[in-house]
TrEMBL record, chains A, B:
Superkingdom, natural source: Bacteria
SUPFAM superfamilies assigned to the protein according to its UniProt record, in alphabetical order: Homeodomain-like
Source organism of this protein record: Nocardioides turkmenicus
Keyword rRNA-binding among UniProt keywords: no
InterPro entries in alphabetical order: DesT_TetR_C (IPR054129), Homeodomain-like_sf (IPR009057), HTH_TetR (IPR001647), HTH_transcr_repressor_FabR (IPR050692)
GO molecular function annotations of the record: DNA binding
Protein name (database record): TetR family transcriptional regulator
Pfam family, one: TetR_N
Domain HTH tetR-type: 16-76
DNA-binding region(s), chain positions: 39-58
Alphabetized UniProt keyword annotations: DNA-binding, Transcription, Transcription regulation
Lineage: Bacteria, Bacillati, Actinomycetota, Actinomycetes, Propionibacteriales
DNA sequence: CCTTTCAGTGAACATCTGTACACCGACAAC
DNA sequence: GTTGTCGGTGTACAGATGTTCACTGAAAGG
């Protein structure tokens, strides 16, 4: 027998592993369509467990979805962290942000795709959870923007408005990248959003908040 | 017997009527979830026909979806027409466009919601059809933008880039309006996008295309 | 060692799914 | 007035669905 490094594995570890398998299977099975079109039995079959075993981990597809929302937004927060890091380095803020975006979307295609889909087509509670998380992201970005040069005279409201616009463009760009597999088309998308952000930044540098 | 104005109605008219009923039922049933989670039998029940009768009009939910894409984009083109009309009138271009957007989203909540959902979560062919239609909208808007003052020196590419950004913001705004029913929250959304477009327009007026 | 815990099993259920088929009856065409 | 067309009906079937229940067997805890 070849030692495959199969650890003894405690019961808790096993449970965690099938939980992971369920999450992964769900992400894979919902790459087209949506959570609402996904059956508990499909997931179970993909994982290799019997349907009823599903209930040991989640009590419905919906609560499974909520778990995936949390997980997916961890990925998105990673992206934010990298954008911030690029901004603090010498990198151009537009190029640095886009690089980080493209990189993270490639790395966690499943998570970003999940958010894009369930944001509009998922179960109500999932949609609301995503909406809430995005709201948090916008707030977080707004506080970052406040530290940018040129925004010292801005009102808090305007900062949030701008932040929300950035997030909108970010989400839309992620969706577009996800919808293609051809590299030259992706390059096109990236070039487009690059120009868009530059156009926008010109406006931002000239903006003066009204009292 | 009360004369209810029931016309004799030819066979073709009858057929068209149930076809309409199927389309309407589908829009209503898919307001949450998505086409992919919708069964032929649900639609048939909602319409009040037997499941097999469905096949007299469409040969699958998917082809039904394609019909709804066409119909929904008629609504969207109506919106574009109104935006153009407002722009030609004395109205402020930002306020005029937003007014038209809000108005049309309210009037055809079903169509805009359908596009928003199926764009990312529908069957592949439906997603592609929507992507294609949006592409056409962007091109159409780009030619309009070319007539705007200040864009005479712009390259065709930059015009399309800007057009695409406008459409992105438009779609995102429509999605937000759709996701709320509270009027004060909608007012908030409208105020936000208003500011966003004004920020963007400042950039646009200063933009000079590179050779 | 003995007992408890508990992730996973397997059979059973009522219900829903898409689709095939033969059929009907009112309108249309001749 | 006869015939054909064609929306819509009703039955039927094989398969998928969520959920129930009693179960097993190995790890955990005493």
């Amino acid at each position: 027998m070849i030692e495959t490094g199969a650890e003894p594995e405690s019961r808790a570890e096993r449970k965690l592993r099938t939980r992971r398998a369920i999450l992964d299977a769900t992400l894979e099975l919902s790459t087209d369509s949506s959570l609402t079109a996904l059956s508990l039995r499909q997931v179970a079959k993909q994982v290799g467990i019997v349907p009823t075993a599903f209930y040991r981990h989640f009590d419905s597809i919906e609560s499974l979805g909520l778990a995936l929302v949390e997980e997916s937004f961890d990925s998105l927060r990673d992206l934010f962290r990298d954008v911030r890091r690029n901004a603090q380095a010498d990198k151009d803020i537009v190029d640095g942000s886009i690089d980080a975006l493209v990189d993270h979307v490639h790395r966690r295609r499943d998570h970003f795709g999940f958010i894009a889909r369930e944001r509009v087509a998922g179960p109500r509670s999932v949609r609301e959870a995503i909406r809430h998380e995005i709201e948090l992201c916008e707030r977080e970005l707004a506080t970052d923007l406040a530290l940018m040069s040129g925004t010292d005279t801005w009102t808090a409201k305007d900062l949030h408005v701008l932040s929300s616009l950035f997030v909108t463009v970010l989400v839309a760009t992620a969706e577009q990248i996800l919808s293609t597999t051809r590299p030259e088309q992706e390059a096109q998308i990236v070039a487009t959003v690059r120009t868009q952000l530059r156009m926008l930044l010109i406006g931002v540098y000239q903006w003066r908040s009204e009292a």
